[in-house]
Model the fold of this input.
Amino acid sequence: MGNIPEEEPKKRQEREIVPIDRKLNLTVTEAAEYSNIGINKLNDMLRHPRCPFVLYVGNKKLVKRKQFEEYLADKIEI
Done:
């Protein structure tokens, strides 16, 4: 009768924020922030058929961080 309902334990745990330099794959926005390259330029680079650092997840494009770093390390100009 006078029962007070107990609080339900959280069903979802809060997601831990992973630093960008520890992620395997980055969103285009994260890659832009990480590399200081504009989103439009990154999207142009990701559209090339032989882009070595693009990963498609359905319609979503991700950037493979390590391959992206290696690609940039070899370039003087993009």
Remarks:
- The domain at 22-73 is CATH 3.90.105.50 (Molybdopterin biosynthesis moea protein, domain 2).
